[in-house]
Design brief:
alpha+beta, globular
């Protein structure tokens, strides 16, 4: 059972020139069984993307920008239905607020559509944040062990079959 202490918060800066206020997401990790099932499904997608990251040198850093790069690479290997499924798995674990003055509300597809309208890069940053909240140990292990470099070669990084 996850607790409020496991919950992580991230604010995505606003874009004043585009009349887009900041967005704050509060994400609670998935339960162990649901998280494991989703990780197995995502691993079919992540492996080719990690291979591409190894080839591009992006895995070496694995710092603050790693998840944004991972999200971008994953999007090139994911079918849109996979992205929708990932989002559907994460929304029940998420509360959003559209600006500093508003209150957090439970994220639903309708709320997500309102909050993230015309903010496509922020949508992928949000999904990357959800992956970090749920799989930071997995991502840290990849970094620490060099597993990605040892097991994945860039030429193996082809789009994955739809899962």
């Amino acid at each position: 059972m996850t607790t409020k202490n496991d919950t992580k918060v991230k604010t995505f800066p606003g874009h004043e020139g585009k009349d887009q206020p900041e967005i704050t997401a509060r994400v609670q990790p998935l339960g162990a069984k649901k998280g494991r099932r989703l990780l197995v499904k995502l691993s079919r997608i992540i492996a080719p993307a990690l291979g591409a990251m190894v080839g591009s040198g992006a895995v070496v850093d694995l710092g603050a920008a790693r998840l944004e790069r991972m999200a971008t690479l994953l999007s090139s290997h994911m079918h849109e239905d996979d992205v929708d499924d990932l989002l559907a798995q994460m929304l029940p674990q998420t509360h959003l607020k559209k600006n500093a003055e508003s209150d957090f509300v439970q994220a639903t597809e309708a709320i997500f559509d309102i909050v993230f309208v015309n903010r496509y890069m922020d949508q992928f940053k949000f999904l990357a944040f959800c992956l970090e909240v749920n799989y930071s140990d997995f991502l840290d292990e990849i970094k620490a062990s060099g597993a990605a470099a040892a097991f994945l070669k860039p030429e193996e990084a082809s789009p994955s079959p739809r899962v």
